[in-house]
Every structure is written in structure tokens, then in C-alpha cells.
Fold:
Amino acid sequence: MHTPLTPNKTHTSRNGVYGDTVRELDDVIGKIVKSVKDAGKERDTLIWFMGDNGPWAVKCEYGGSQGPYLGSWQHEKGGGGSSAKKTLWEGGHREPSFAYWPGHIPAGHVSNSLLSTLDVFPTIASLARVAMPTDRRFDGIDVTDVLFNETEIRDRVLFHPNSGASGIIGQLDAVRLGNYKAIYQTGGEPDCGGTTGPSKRHDPPLIFDLLQDPSEKTPLDQDTAAYKALYFGVESALEYIKEDIRGDNTSIADYSLDPSAKPCCNANHVACRCYG
Structure:
């Protein structure tokens, strides 16, 4: 869901307009599932639901809840501000997901696997028995064993790019290494009250044990052997992914030949984006 919230029915929830919109979303999904059932295609259809980011704190009660992923360090040590959408804290990008496919996915199973939306493409390709292109590399993995066989994937590396709060947009400034996460950049995004924590670079990074500290309150002591070992792993992972990006397939298309594909800065045009 995204602001502005405009549910067709209001006052259906004790949680105001946001709750009304959640109920309407739930109703829409229910209608999709019913249509699949009515068409007799329930056992031939995978329904996979997920979100793209956490709540937008500056939108206050219209933005949603971070649950336990509070990014407490930001509020207690980082000068305040948001630890939700657009930031590198768990509240900014950690989302639940559910998948439904009778006869294939065990009903009621809950997985703690570490997955990514990047996994959707290779997983669907695997289910469709379609070979992935061989002239490029993919960051996602096939997670059919998680969906069907209750396999758990925890020992995995994921990278989180800056999304506009602070630092350089797109730069990989957070690394998930199994149960641990390293953050190189904090601050820069306003909270509901308008407070914005100062943009701050951390090098070496803050490293949190998300299994023991999901609210990201207390980073590991940088003088410990555990921190030093994790830091080496994080830096190695970053170097690997950067080299992978440098050596991957890149486009050689000249988009200036197609007027519809030229970069533009026109606030009145739906396809244009203006920065600065």
C-alpha cells in the first residue's frame, strides 16, 4: 500500500484509514483467490505475495508499522529521524511474504529463510522449466526448495543499496551476512515529527546480530574477534559483488536514437524523473 490511502469504505477498522486500506487490500486478494478457484485453476496457480519496502515514517499513521524492526541505534545514538523506508535499517526493507499453491506448498508452514525479491525471477523460470539466459549473471536464486520442501536458507549474503536517505543513491552500504548485518551509512531521513538524523558514514561499519537484536539497538564491539572476523567477511563480500557487477553484461544500446527513451526532466510527464 502507498499513500495517498483512498479506501472505498472507511471506519471499518480501529486503525483508521490505514486499517481500512489493509482490509480492502485483503478483500481484493481474496477475490483474486476466489476467481482462481472458480476457474478450476487453484492447483495450477502459484500466488506469491510480498512487499517492496517498509513503512514510510514521515507519513505517520498512514505509513504502517515497523513491528519489532525499530532501528533503535538510529533513535538513541544516531540523532533520531527515521529508521524505516528509504533507510538501510531492517524497518526500511524487511518484509514478510506468503505463497499459496494447494498440492505443492505445505499449508501452514512458516519459514525463517532469508529471501529476496530478486529470487522471484529464477524461481519462476525454474518452475516453468525455462533456462535462464547464459550471457549475464543473476543475483537471485531458485528457492523452490524453500517453497515446496520446507528447506531453510539462512547462511546467505544480501546487499542493500542506498535508497535516498543519505549517501550516494544505489551505493551498496549495507550487507546481510547470515544472521548479521553491516551498515556503512545512517541518518538522512525524516520521521513522523520531522526530525532528521545527520547523515553519517561508518567505516568500519556498524555490525548487528539480527537474531539476538532484531531492533538493531547495540552493534558488536569492534575490538572483539567476532567483529573482526565478520568485518573481513563483509568486506570480502562487497569486493566480490563489485567485481561481479564490473564484469557482468552491460547494455550497448544507444537510447538517444529513440526519442521515447531519452532521459527527461518534465514534472508534467509521467515517465520523467527530476533530481536536483
